[in-house]
Every structure is written in structure tokens, then in C-alpha cells.
Amino acid sequence: MQDFAHEMLREIYEQPEALRRTLALYLLNGGLKPEVAKMLAGWSIPEGEVLIAASGSSRHSGLAAEILLEDMCGLAVDVEYASEYSLRGDSGLKGAHQPSVLVLSQSGETSDTLAALREARRRGQKTLAITNVAASTMAHEADVSMPLAAGVERAIPATKSFTCQLAVLYLLALYEGARLCRMEEGALAANIAELQAIPGVLEEQLDGWRAQMAGLAAKYKGASTFLYLSRGIHYAIAREGALKLKEASYVHAEGYPAGELKHGPNALVSDTVPLVVMATVDRAVQASVERYEKTVQLLEDMKAQGARVIGLANAGDKAVAGLVSDCVYVPAASEYLLPILEVVPLQLFSYFMALEHGVDVDRPRNLSKAVVEK
């Protein structure tokens, strides 16, 4: 049994088992559970419109869900900051049907997200809550609850709850895709099998990523700012990676769509402002290939510019490795499951950057595990 100096590192290592427990809530014998499908059938509206309200890391999983639900299920999805949604009033909804609302919260008690849920219920909207506490207020008040089984998360920076959120959102897409006949039986079975393999894939990578990210943290500890870049569903992971670095290590970072770098942020890139670029690819998805090719072109430009770049790429991708200062390899996976794998080395990088800066990583200043009303 490994000895962990901090809860954050322990919880990063607990992710494979947390994912297995969470998947067991929704899958049985390699298939979807009929009782879950029946429960979820009453949540969606005929128009297929969904609004996601969340804050912090949960909002980043919501950004990933937007792509998942649109691409895999044909739904129309919008993502709001929970803190903004509940304060907008009714003006934007007059004369229109109202979307179903999905709220995401680790604790299920986040005040802004709870306010968004209650506002949606006041308007008569169908609601679904995804939380890590099955007995939480949100789980109780929403029409439908999809709990995680991540277990208690003691460190303030979210790690295992975030990857379990991504897994449950992927499961939601599978259930909705099956209900809407957007997924053939063979494709559904293949997607489930790949999802169930993810915990084992993570287990095999953790020690190698741990050693590599510790070395990169020592190398890049003098950086003043990091720019995290990606495209598509991976943009959510750029945002999450940047947030994790800020809250864990107090080092400033921002997440951007990769195509936006030259629309201003590139002015910041220097020896003290490195890039973290996600350049993974799913060769079976044409849009993923196009995204990857655009990202490789950006990396070529950044190499010519002399930028310092940490790249995340598919295992064995020599093209990306030759264009970046340091390459972190991620095992091959489908486009919509890659985010679960991508975020873990970024969590480890944040952890080790915190150690390099002498931060109490489990209890960063000015932060609490759940932002609730006082």
C-alpha cells in the first residue's frame, strides 16, 4: 500500500476505484440498467433542449457534457454559470418553451447552484442533479438524481469527483442516445466496454505520470503564468487544468480554445509564460482528426516562435513530441473519453507545482470545499 503525504495525491490515486464504483451504479452485465433508463425518461423535454448550471470544476465538466450531449444525442445544450443563471430573471424565457435543467455539484449544497435549481423548479422546468452526495439537498429537490460514488473528497481541489462527473455525464449521453435511437446496439455496447476499461487504463499510467509531472513541476516552477489550450470537448480540460493549477499552487493560469491564442493571448507567451497544449486525437472521428491537425499547425508556429510548450499527445505520437518542449503521453481512447485520461496528469502537475511553491495543497488559502450560504 502506498503512503501519501497529502489527501489530494491520495484522491488522485483513488480515481480508478472511484470510477469503478460509480459505473457500477449505472451498468450491469455490460449494459444499461432498465430502471435507470426509466428514471431518466421523465427528465428530457420533447424539444431536446438542455441547460447546464454549475460552478468551478463542475462547470468544466458541464462544458464537456455540452459536446457529449450534442454530438452523441443530438440535443441542444447551453452551459451557464450557476451564479449568473439564478439572477437573470424571466426575461429571456418569455414566449418560449423552457429547457430541462442539469445541475452539477460535488457537495450538492453549492449555494449558487442550489439557487439555480430552485429557480428552474419555480419555472416548472424538469431538473436533474448530479452530485457526489446522494442525500444532498440538490439530489433531494431535483426531479431526477444521478449520484456519484467517488467517496468523501477531503482535499479542497476536486480530483476524483471531477473524473466521476465526466463518467456519469458520458453515461447520461449513452442513456439518452439509446432512448432517442441515436446509437445502434453494437455501438452502445462498444462505448460501454470502453468506458468500463478506463479505470484499468488509469491505474497503469498513474505511477509514470506521477514521476513525469514531478519532474516537470521542478522544471517549470519559475513560470509566472500558464496558458492551457485545446479544442472541442478538450477545451473543458484546458479550463479545468488551469483552474486546478491556480487553486492548488497559486500560480496563475488561463484556459483558452487553441484557435484563440493568436487573437491576443499570444502576446503573453515568453520564457516565463509557457503553454500546456492538448494534442490528442481519435483517428476514427474526422472532426477529431481535423482538430488535431489544426493543433499540430499551432505547435509548429509556437516552436518557430520559441515558445516553451508542455504537450499532451497520444502514446507514441512522434510528430507532437518533436514540436514541444516536453511531451506527456496519454493512452489512446475515443474522442469523448479522452478527457478523463487527459485531466489526471494535469491534476498531478498542479499537485507537484503546489509542493514546489510550498503550498498546503489540501487546504489552499481563501477556499472551502463547498461554497454555501452563511
Notes on the protein architecture:
This protein is α/β, with parallel strands linked by helices. It folds into 2 domains: 190 residues, Rossmann fold; 154 residues, Rossmann fold (3-Layer(aba) Sandwich). Helix content is 48%, strand content 15%. The chain contains 13 helices and 12 strands. A 5-stranded parallel sheet has the order 4-3-5-6-7, sandwiched between helices. Strand 6, helix 7 and strand 7 form a beta-alpha-beta unit. Helix 2 packs antiparallel against helix 9 and helix 10 runs parallel beside helix 13. The longest helix has 36 residues.
In short:
Helix content is 48%, strand content 15%.
CATH hierarchy, class of the largest domain: Alpha Beta
Sheet with the most strands? Answer: 5 strands, parallel
Any idea what the radius of gyration is? 20 Å
SSE string:
HHEEHEHEHEHEHEHHEHEEHEHEH
Strand order of the largest sheet: 4-3-5-6-7
Q: Identify the overall geometry.
A: globular
Uncertain segments are none
CATH topology group of the largest domain: Rossmann fold
DSSP strand tally: 12
Mean pLDDT: 94
Please work out how many helical segments DSSP would assign: 13
Estimated helix fraction? 40-55%
Share of β-strand residues? 15-25%
Oligomer class = single chain
CATH superfamily of the largest domain: Glucose-6-phosphate isomerase like protein, domain 1
The number of domains is 2
